[in-house]
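Query structure, 494 tokens:
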């Protein structure tokens, strides 16, 4: 990336910070000047550029020179827009260039070459490598859904034991630091190095032209005024339902409130309503403390969204299958583009399918439960986290270099992602840029315990249109406390 591109990317990032004060839980703003008087001796009116040194806190060392630093990368799904670990500058994509330059930056400073091993069977590979003491990688990238049972078996080092890692620094995702610790231990985390977590965010997009034609309020205003709730979402979605055939049969020729999949809708809206399947107490222990009254009300609302004819177009639904002929592979995206759906929900990466269209659209966070809810919540699709395998010959080296890569990504990869992917290609107005700031600041990480099936139980009840969610949870609740006691004990090391 040339100097002008770097400056532009950094400027875009700083503009977002100033507008929102929201980037990955870091709300620090530039200090206001205390004295605006210009001295007579001052002749240079150009502002002095402050250059960020990602390695200032780490210092200099030749200890790791001429070595490799290897990632076991389980992120092989094609829907991710790019690789976080390695890239080719020749690709021409600004984020790819930033990734390559970041790696070169670390190599120039510490003499380390960044390498990766792509492995879709990474869980088995990690377990085998640790059990046989044959560690051929330094860091393993593992999905959040799969990492908890591995951590319970003491497969990883605690980040708190790594001398070079200061988890309060802005290149570590503060939401992850807070949400992913258990009993004071943090066996996996993420930060500025990883672009895949951006791609995996559940987003809610809307068609501006359809919104205007329906005479509906601006969702931007609703978000700003703390009125963007699930009730308002339902009200607007109902207003968009138009049965042009007037035969009570909704087809691909009609207009819908929402284009999405049932599991996506459940995931997005339950998370947006602040409903956590598992939470933590003051001792940082995982607990099951479900607000059943709040849950019941939220579930009933989401059931109405899924099962009211004409509200949701779900291309996986058998009712919609007859109307998919002749439509593109990207059915849901096409519906929004054509103005046949007011809202669209999927992962942020999928908004790339809007870029070639002339559609005017915006992006907003998922709606709240009600106006009393303290904040908005956004969720990710099973994001990848970074682990340091137990048995590593030099975990302090791994912590040092991983921190260096996170820090070196903070003013390179992150601004490029904002400048090119978000501001340049996804966001089409300043309001969406600001809304994306809220989305990123509101990221929330769910706790995944494999044999605690609260989430799947709730979602299956909604999808099957059952009103017995509390009864279903009651049937499984008896085993949960004992399971969590075992998990907390394992995480604690007792």
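Result returned for the query:
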């Amino acid at each position: 990336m040339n100097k002008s591109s770097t400056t532009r990317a950094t400027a875009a990032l700083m503009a977002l910070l100033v507008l929102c004060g929201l980037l990955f839980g870091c709300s620090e703003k530039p200090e206001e000047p205390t004295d605006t008087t210009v001295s007579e001796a001052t002749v240079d009116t150009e502002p002095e550029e402050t250059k960020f040194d990602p390695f200032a806190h780490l210092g200099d060392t030749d200890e790791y020179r001429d070595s490799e630093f290897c990632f076991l990368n389980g992120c092989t799904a094609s829907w991710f827009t790019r690789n976080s670990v390695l890239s080719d500058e020749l690709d021409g994509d600004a984020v790819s260039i930033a990734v390559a330059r970041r790696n070169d930056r670390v190599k120039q400073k510490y003499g380390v070459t960044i390498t990766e091993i792509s492995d879709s069977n990474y869980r088995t590979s990690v377990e085998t490598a640790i059990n046989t003491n044959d560690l051929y990688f330094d860091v393993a990238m593992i999905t959040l859904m799969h990492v908890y049972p591995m951590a319970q078996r003491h497969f990883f080092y605690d980040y708190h034991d790594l001398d070079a890692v200061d988890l309060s620094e802005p290149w570590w995702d503060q939401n992850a630091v807070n949400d992913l610790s258990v009993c004071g231990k943090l066996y996996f985390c993420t930060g500025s190095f990883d672009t895949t977590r951006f791609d995996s965010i559940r987003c809610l997009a809307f068609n501006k032209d359809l919104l205007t034609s329906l005479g509906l309020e601006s969702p931007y205003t609703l978000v700003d005024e703390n009125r963007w709730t699930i009730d308002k979402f339902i009200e607007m979605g109902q207003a968009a339902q138009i049965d042009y055939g007037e035969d009570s049969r909704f087809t691909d020729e009609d207009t819908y409130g929402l284009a999405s999949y049932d599991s996506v809708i459940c995931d997005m809206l339950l998370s947006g309503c602040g409903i956590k399947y598992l939470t933590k107490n003051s001792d940082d222990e995982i607990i099951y403390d479900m607000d059943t009254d709040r849950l019941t009300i939220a579930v009933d609302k989401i059931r109405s969204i899924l099962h009211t004819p004409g509200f949701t177009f779900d291309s996986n639904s058998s009712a919609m299958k007859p109307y998919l002929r002749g439509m593109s592979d990207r059915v849901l995206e096409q519906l929004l583009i054509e103005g046949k759906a007011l809202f669209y929900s999927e992962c942020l990466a999928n908004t790339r399918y809007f870029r070639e269209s002339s559609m005017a659209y915006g992006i907003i966070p998922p709606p709240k439960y009600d106006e009393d809810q303290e904040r908005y919540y956004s969720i990710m699709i099973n994001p990848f986290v970074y682990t340091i395998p137990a048995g590593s010959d030099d975990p302090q080296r791994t912590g040092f270099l991983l921190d260096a890569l996170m820090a070196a990504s903070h003013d390179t990869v992150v601004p490029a992602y904002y400048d090119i992917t978000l501001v340049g290609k996804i966001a089409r107005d300043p309001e969406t840029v600001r809304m994306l700031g809220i989305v990123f600041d509101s990221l929330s990480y769910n706790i995944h315990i494999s044999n605690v099936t609260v989430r799947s139980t709730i979602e299956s009840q909604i999808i099957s249109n059952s009103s017995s969610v509390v009864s279903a949870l009651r049937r499984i609740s008896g085993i949960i406390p004992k399971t969590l006691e075992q998990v907390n004990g394992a995480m604690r090391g007792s």
